[in-house]
Structures are given as structure tokens and as C-alpha cells.
Write a structure and sequence with these properties.
Helix 16 (340-349) packs antiparallel against helix 20 (391-410) and helix 23 (495-504) packs across helix 25 (558-575). The chain is elongated and about 105 Å long. The longest helix is centred in the N-terminal third of the chain and has 23 residues, at 150-172. The strands form 8 sheets. The protein has a 6-stranded mixed beta sheet with strand order 15-16-18-21-19-20. A 6-stranded mixed beta sheet has the order 17-33-32-24-25-26. Strands 2-1-3-4-5 form a 5-stranded parallel beta sheet, with helices on both faces. A hairpin with a 2-residue loop joins strand 22 and strand 23 (612-614). It is of the alpha/beta class and 797 residues long. It contains 30 helices and 33 strands.
């Protein structure tokens, strides 16, 4: 590839939810409808017009339906406008003793900022209106009522789109559908269909958004529809907004140079195709013979007298504008891709010829644009097939783009379990319904919060993320108890009998199916952690009360890996009923029935060294130091660090202590360090594929002498060497002398920005939660391709 994917994506801004707040700032909230009692009756039919309009808004999941006030004469309308503020005036043709044109003139003279729409309810009035010169001077648009209240939605959105056009295209890259039509009858038909179809498809595409609020915000980024009536107006508009135009739908016959030109639309599309050869265009005409011109221009065509006129328009929106499935016809077969995962898989499989055809015709850019990726779509539209060495480079490029989009959209959110998502970082997948428990809630919040606040990428020298994580909600715990007939009376039994009872139980089939996929996809060590409802409360600790199992997950066959994952999940469930947990819950004055268990399955941080698996170091950081010494401020926080797995810290063994606010400050003397430096570390024992989890959490762990890590070259950044001759510590590993774990290269010489990361997370987390926080973390200093050749800080819980 002549330009790497990283170069292509480096200027792509990460649009988060806050981006959408700035779109569609100017809205229509109050409409004054001026019509006679008879016209009001016709408009209202069997119900109030405002209720019908609200119904259209609700059906499309739109908020803030405008309030419609009805007055029955032009004079009453002028009085009403003088007393109250309105954003839009809609008047019918017959409004008493004053004509709509005189009324519009008077309104414009007094309230020039208020747009006026003339709404006809009789088709025969169109020919009369078209002869009136006052139309263009005082009336902004003319529509004809066809009995469908969607016309009001179209009128409102048409003006809102025009008002917000400049700001939303410049700041939000919002796309534009340009409609060129001078027939009042036909644009009154087309516009309601256009808006309804666009909003329906956008709603379907954003159905996976995290919550309703985000869906509504994303709806603001929908394509805008702009209506023009003449060649000159359309030309000027296209010239100005060319890079944002997504599609053009044009009549064939309309005004050009002040005269009706029977080929104006053909000439306009011909001009556009020279500028943007692959722009989706649609010509529509009452003359079927014009289809030849449309075909010659590679444009769609609709015959206005067709009985399927609106169906053809909907089909164009659905397929040519990328809202529907991506259809590939390849070597006699048809492939459909309805989502990112399917598109990625299909791109991998189709022939080079088919891939080239879709790339050359800009189909991928159109599909991305329909799915709310305007920046990438715009850049892809500018990229030519000749920018690549060959079609296979195009294939790899597209796959990386899709993976980038999927990862960016999902990170920070909890997504439903999908096998393809297991390869992505920064994602938490849901394996079961119900609450995530205390640890799960904290982890999902901090993941979302770090990404939203930019903590995950505020440094260029390292990566900050969470390990690949899946959470089984508490509903699976409830189902396990119900289906295996385990009652609260089990607490009277011995702990070993309780574990045995749970191990013999069966997990639900849906969960088993997901765990099977997980076992087939992941063959690296994993931690199966507890996450009960009461765990990680802000007011009482649960550390060490429930079980965590570190699995080697190294069996060559997935069935064995699945067996141990299931056993670990069941044993975590069982830990809720064990004697130690019961006594602790009772001491906090909770009832046993209040406690329920979720489970976190998390990939272990680290690398394999011979038969051991461990990270370079792990730790626990607290934003408040409750036992501060040496004149250190409590709010400066405290961190306990250990080489290897964090069990060393959790179990209260020898660790290194420092304050993230003052990493260079020595809390203890060199003599104290020599006596109390970490001498052993924990790692996952990878030498066995058959293990006995019922024997306890330590069944898969191995405690190793710190000097055994010298051959792994993992102590270089975390240890210092004591030079006896000069009674000093030299950072790093040097020949001779005792090795002291004091993280000097990291804390004093900033070889890894640990204190900077911890200070940022602790400070931001404390503000977000409104209380002091504690986090558990691990660091992998390995610089391999999977993390962009950068060391990585992982937030564990």
C-alpha cells in the first residue's frame, strides 16, 4: 500500500456522543397554522393535527414535535404573531377576506425572519398559484396536502435542514441529498417519502446504540435534504457544498436561464458526473424516452407516471444510498452483508474482480456514509484504486478500515457477545443478562470513562486499556440455582460438599454456547473473577472474600479449556455460599438472599517465559492514603507495586510502596529496602494442562524465587543492584550485588510513565465517583506489534 492505513486514519477525529450535541441547533418548536374552519376540518380529519404530527415524530423516535396553533383568518394570525413567538407560518389558500399573498407580505414586513409556507389542499389550485408573481417574493415554499400528515414533518425538516446546513456540514460533515424539482405536486410527494425513509433507515442502523439518548443524538447527524427549483440555484448550491453532497435526485425538465428547458436535468447530472463520477444520481421524468439519457450517464431513472413511483424512490434510497444490505454478485453467487462483521467476512471471500468493481464505483464509501462515518467515507471517496499496488492491497485496506470502525464504535461500551469481537481491545462483552455486580459495574464504568475523558490515549509513549473482558450477569447465577435446585439451605453443608454440589450442576445452554465459542477463540491464560452485587462497594471491602481462578487455558483442545472455564465459573458461584463469605455478609448486617454473583472472565496480562506466565509488574493504587507517613499528604495517594502477578500485593506480602504524586521520594531507607525487598513472585504455572480447581485458587499458581526471573530478562526495569563497596543502589541489573525490587528506572527515570498514568486515573476517577477510589492494575513492558510496539498499562478492576 503506497500510503499506510495509519497515515490514512491519523487525521480521523474520534467523534464521541458530544459531537452530536452541536448538530441541528436551530429547531422549529412553534407553528402557526392559518386556515378556515373547513380547511382545519380537512387537515384534522378524525383527530387533532398536532396529535397526528406528534404521532409521526413518535413513530420515527424523534423528540420535540412542534406545537401547532390554529387560527382561522389572516387577521387573527397577525394578532397572534404580534403576541407570541413562532418559528414557522403555514397558511392555506383561502383565509377569509385577505389573500394569502397580502397576508404573507404583511407578515414579511413585520416579521421578516419567519418563513411562510402556502399549503394547498386542492390540486387544481396549483395552476392558479404558479401564475402569481408574489409567490417567490413573500412565500418561501408551496406544498400541496395529499391527506398524509407526513407533509408537515417534511416541511419542518426541510426548513431545519436549510437553517443548520452550513454549520452542520462544516463541523459535522453531515451529508446532503439534493432534490431538484419545480413541480409542487411531485416534490410534495417526494419529500415526505425521502424524510420518512431516511429516518427509518437511520433508526434501524443505530438500533445498537447504547441507550435511547445516544440514538436521538445520532439522529441529528442524519443526511439533510435540500430542495432547489432551477438549474442556477442547483448549480450554485452544488458548487459550494460539493464535498458534502451524497446524492442528487433531479427532474429532467425545469427552469434554466429563466426558461423551462426540457433537458435541464440531463445537463445538470452530466455536469455532476464530470465532478463526481460515482455520485449516486436519480433522474425522474414524465417522458419515458429520457431513460436513455439517464442510462448514458449511469444514473437511475424513475418514470413519473409509473404505478410504482414511490417504490422506485424507496428502492433508490435503500440500495443506491447504502442504507440496505451491501449486495455482491460474484461468480454466479450473491452475497449480502448487513453489518460490519458480515462486510468484513465477505470482503475476505469475494474475487478480485468484484472487489475492484465496488471499489472503483465508490460503493464502500457510500455504505460507510449511510452508517454515520462521514470522515472516513469522505476520505475514501478521494482515494483512487490507483493509490494501491494491487487489488489485494485494497482488500487489506478495507478490512483494516472496518476493524478500526468496529473497534472505535464498541470501545468503552458493553456489547452483546459475538465471536468476532473477542479479538478487539477496549471492549467488554456481555455473556449473560442481569447486573454486572460491583466489580463489573466499576470496570465497565472506568472503561467508558477513560475513553470518554481521553485517558486511554493521553500519552504517546504507551497504551492504556483494559484486558479483553467478558461478564456473565447475575441472571445466570439465578438460573443456575433454579435449574439445579440449589436452595439457601446448602449453607449448612461443609464447604467441600458445597463446591462438589456446584461442580456437578449444569450451566444454561445459552451460556454454554457462548463459553464454547470463547474457549475456541481464546487459548491464553484467563482470570475468572467474582463480581457479586455487594462486592467493591464504596463503603465496605470484599477483598479476598470470594474466589478468583487464574487458568492457564493452555490445553491444545478447546473441550478441555471449556471444561476448566465452566468449573471456574461454578466455583465462583459456589464461593457465595462458603462459610467465610456467609460470616462476612452477616457481619455487615446484610441478608444472604440479598447477595447474587456475576462473573468476570478476563484475559491475564503478561507473557509466557518457559513454563511461567506473568506480567512485568502489578499493583494496587489508592487515591487516598489512610496511613500516611513521612509528612506525606493523605490525598497524595499510595501505590503498592510487585513484580509478577498482583497476588503478592493482595496477600500482603513484601511489596514496594510509593506515592504517585511524589514518585522520586524514598519512603523507606536503603537498609529497609535490602531487608524487605520482594524475594519471590507469583506466576501462572503453564507446565500442566490437567488441573484440580477444587483444591483451591492456588491450584494453577506457582511462587518463584525472584532470581529465577533473571534469565527471562524481565527484571531490567523493575530492579536495582546494591553495590556493597559504595553502599548504594544502581538502577538496573548489574553483575554482582543483591537485587532489590524498587522500580527505580520507572519511578525515578521515567522509563515508563507509571506515576503519570496513576495520578491521572486516580484524580479523574475520584472526581467521577465523588469518593476516594482504589484500582488494581498490571503492566506489560513488552513492545510487540499487537500493541503498536508500545508498553501497555492495563486496568484490571
Amino acid at each position: 500500500m503506497k500510503n499506510s492505513i495509519h497515515e490514512f486514519l491519523k487525521d480521523i477525529n474520534n467523534y464521541e456522543t458530544r459531537y452530536y450535541y452541536n448538530l441541528m441547533r436551530k429547531r422549529i418548536t412553534r407553528i402557526l397554522l392559518v386556515c378556515t374552519y373547513y380547511d382545519a376540518y380537512i387537515f384534522e380529519e378524525d383527530g387533532k393535527l398536532s396529535e397526528q404530527v406528534s404521532g409521526e415524530y413518535n413513530a420515527l423516535n424523534l423528540t420535540s414535535a412542534p406545537l401547532i396553533k390554529n387560527v382561522h383568518s389572516g387577521k387573527d394570525a397577525l394578532i397572534e404573531l404580534a403576541s407570541n413567538d413562532y418559528d414557522l407560518v403555514i397558511t392555506s389558500y383561502r383565509i377569509g377576506e385577505i389573500t394569502p399573498f397580502d397576508f404573507a407580505k404583511e407578515v414579511k414586513n413585520k416579521f421578516p425572519h419567519i418563513p411562510i409556507v402556502l399549503l394547498l389542499n386542492v390540486l387544481s389550485d396549483i395552476s392558479v398559484i404558479e401564475k402569481k408573481n408574489e409567490i417567490k417574493e413573500y412565500i418561501d415554499e408551496v406544498f400541496v396536502w395529499n391527506g398524509d400528515s407526513k407533509i408537515f414533518l417534511a416541511i419542518v425538516k426541510l426548513f431545519e435542514d436549510s437553517w443548520n446546513l452550513e454549520e452542520d456540514t462544516e463541523n459535522g460533515l453531515v451529508r446532503i441529498i439534493l432534490l431538484i424539482e419545480d413541480s409542487i405536486h411531485y416534490y410534495s410527494i417526494f419529500l415526505p417519502v425521502l424524510y420518512a425513509e431516511i429516518m427509518k433507515h437511520i433508526q434501524q442502523l443505530i438500533s445498537s446504540e447504547l441507550n435511547d439518548h445516544q440514538k436521538l443524538l445520532r439522529m441529528r447527524a442524519r443526511p439533510k435534504v435540500i430542495l432547489k427549483h432551477s438549474y442556477e440555484d442547483a448549480y450554485d448550491f452544488f458548487t459550494r457544498y460539493k464535498k458534502y453532497v451524497w446524492s442528487v435526485i433531479s427532474d429532467v425538465e425545469f427552469a434554466m436561464n429563466g426558461v423551462i428547458n426540457p433537458k435541464a436535468g440531463v445537463k445538470f447530472i452530466s455536469f455532476i458526473k464530470k465532478e463526481l463520477p460515482h455520485l449516486p444520481c436519480l433522474l425522474q421524468s414524465s417522458e419515458l424516452s429520457n431513460k436513455k439519457d439517464a442510462d448514458a450517464l449511469h444514473s437511475g431513472f424513475i418514470h413519473k407516471y409509473s404505478k410504482e413511483l414511490l417504490k422506485c424512490l424507496r428502492d433508490f434510497i435503500n440500495y443506491s444510498l447504502g442504507f440496505g444490505d451491501f449486495i455482491f454478485h460474484d461468480q454466479g453467487k450473491t452475497f449480502k452483508a448487513s453489518n460490519w462483521m458480515e462486510l468484513e467476512q465477505t470482503i475476505k471471500e469475494i474475487s478480485p474482480q468484484t472487489l475492484r468493481y465496488h471499489a472503483e464505483n465508490n460503493h464502500f464509501s457510500i455504505w460507510l456514509s449511510a452508517r454515520g462515518e462521514p470522515q472516513i467515507a469522505m476520505k475514501m471517496r478521494e482515494k483512487m484504486i490507483d493509490d494501491f499496488y494491487d487489488v489485494e492491497e485494497v482488500r487489506r485496506f478495507l478490512i483494516e478500515i472496518i476493524r478500526f470502525i468496529r473497534n472505535r464504535r464498541n470501545r468503552g461500551n458493553v456489547i452483546e457477545f459475538n465471536a468476532s469481537d473477542l479479538e478487539y481491545e477496549d471492549e467488554i462483552v456481555r455473556m449473560g443478562e442481569g447486573s454486572f455486580g460491583g466489580k463489573g459495574r466499576g470496570l465497565t464504568f472506568m472503561n467508558h470513562f477513560m475513553i470518554r475523558q481521553g485517558i486511554n490515549n493521553f500519552l504517546d509513549s504507551c497504551k492504556i486499556r483494559i484486558p479483553k473482558t467478558a461478564i456473565i450477569g447475575v441472571r445466570e447465577f439465578e438460573l443456575f440455582l433454579e435449574e439445579n435446585q440449589i436452595s439457601s439451605q446448602i449453607v449448612e453443608e461443609d464447604d467441600d460438599l458445597i463446591k462438589d454440589r456446584f461442580l456437578k450442576g449444569e450451566l444454561s445452554k445459552p451460556l454454554m454456547n457462548k463459553l464454547e465459542i470463547y474457549a475456541k477463540s481464546i487459548d491464553k491464560p484467563i482470570a475468572v473473577r467474582s463480581s457479586s452485587l455487594l462486592e467493591d462497594s464504596q463503603f465496605q471491602p470484599f477483598a479476598g472474600v470470594y474466589a478468583t481462578y487464574m487458568l492457564p487455558n493452555n490445553s491444545p483442545d478447546w473441550e478441555t479449556r471449556l471444561l476448566y472455564i465452566c468449573q471456574a465459573v461454578k466455583l465462583v458461584f459456589a464461593s457465595t455460599f462458603l462459610k467465610n463469605a456467609q460470616r462476612y455478609i452477616e457481619s455487615l448486617q446484610y441478608k444472604f438472599e440479598e447477595e447474587k454473583m456475576a462473573v468476570i472472565i478476563q484475559q491475564v496480562v503478561g507473557n509466557r517465559y518457559e513454563d511461567l506466565f506473568y506480567p512485568h509488574f502489578s499493583g494496587v493504587a489508592q487515591s487516598h492514603n489512610y496511613y500516611s507517613t513521612n509528612n506525606m499528604l493523605p490525598e497524595s495517594g499510595i501505590v503498592s507495586l510487585a513484580f509478577g502477578l498482583g497476588i503478592t500485593v493482595v496477600e500482603g506480602e513484601k511489596v514496594f510502596i510509593f506515592s504517585p504524586a511524589e514518585p522520586n521520594r524514598d519512603i523507606v531507607s536503603v537498609e529497609h529496602l535490602l531487608k524487605h525487598s520482594q524475594t519471590g513472585f507469583y506466576a501462572i504455572d503453564m507446565s500442566h494442562t490437567i488441573i484440580d480447581l477444587s483444591s483451591g485458587e492456588a491450584a494453577t499458581l506457582k511462587k518463584v524465587d525472584i532470581y529465577d526471573a533473571l534469565k527471562h530478562r524481565t527484571l531490567d526495569q523493575v530492579a536495582s543492584t546494591y553495590e556493597y563497596e559504595n553502599s548504594r543502589l544502581l538502577p538496573g541489573i548489574h553483575s554482582g550485588g543483591s537485587k532489590v525490587i524498587n522500580f527505580a528506572n520507572i519511578l525515578k527515570y521515567n522509563s515508563f510513565p507509571l506515576s503519570q498514568i496513576l495520578k491521572r486515573i486516580l484524580d479523574e476517577g475520584k472526581k467521577a465517583l465523588g469518593t476516594p477510589i482504589e484500582i488494581e492494575f498490571a503492566v506489560d513492558l513488552t513492545k510487540d506489534e499487537s500493541v503498536g510496539f508500545l508498553p501497555t498499562f492495563y486496568l484490571l478492576q
